[in-house]
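Dear all,

This email documents one entry for the complex benchmark we are building for the journal club exercise. For each entry we list the sequence lines for every component of the assembly. Then comes the predicted three-dimensional structure of the complex as a token string, followed by one or two observations. Please use this as the template for your own entries, and keep the labels exactly as they appear.
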Amino acid sequence: MNIWIAIGVTAFGCYAVKLVGLMVPAGVLERPLVRRLAALLPVALLAALTAQQTFSDGQTLVLDARAAGVAAAAVALILRAPFLLVVGAAVVVTAGVRALGG
Amino acid sequence: MTSAGSGLTLLQTCALSLLVFTGASQFALVGALAAGGGPFTAAAGAFFLGVRNAFYGLRLSQLLALPRAVRPFAAQWVIDETTAVSLAQPGRRGARIGFVVTGLSLYVLWNLTTLLGALGAEAIGDTDAWGLDAAGPAVFLALLAPMLRTGAERTVAGVAVLLGLGLLPVLPAGVPVLVAALAAPAVLWARGRKSASRGDTAEEDR
């Protein structure tokens, strides 16, 4: 039963925050500062998430094969490679470094 | 799926994916329950991880311009991936298509893999060995790259990376990313001050 309570509370809370963002009235969003902020917030969040997914294992920072893979993806991006090639480069390089014992 | 191993039934595991649909929150909830946390403590941690979706919604609602009646249905799909894909599209039409396609395919795939995982069909073996764990950050990086056009965006991304990594070991899961979000108002404020001290009256916005 406890588990169902936890699932219910989490589902409600997570849905509510998702909806809150969408429901902010358009008038508020048209103010230049809010516009600018709303455009920059996803950049901050996605950048932090990308870094965390690359350099962390749980709550510890690690430098492993993923870093090499994501670095390869960055190089592919700078060379203007297509999306799938960028992701493919990350996967292949990570697997390669790991196979070599990285 | 990890949840099947931590005392959740098949039904509970699937309900979690169907109703919560925010990967990080689900893992946090399951982890906290498995560690013996109470239902409300566990839910609080999961909730923190979900808060960033509100910020995504803020941007998406401008971008997608959804009718009010549709928003409650669209809300469930407001997550990292759909935001990243929608923001990477040039026009409103593209953003809407990106949102729906990403939302639908992830929702279906996520729930299918949850079901298969809970049924014990983990026959693929160790996905990490194939380097697939690098695909997630690479996808985010590819979607993020076109957004880093101006100095403000680059500074925000740089500060957010430092905050996100620096605080990761010391704050509970989910909180570092929220603190990293403060990079956005901080950089805006700093740049506003700089242009004010130069005597610029023009708004920096394009």
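Observations: The beta strands of chain A are 56-57, 60-61. Chain A touches chain B through 68 residues (CB under 8 Å).
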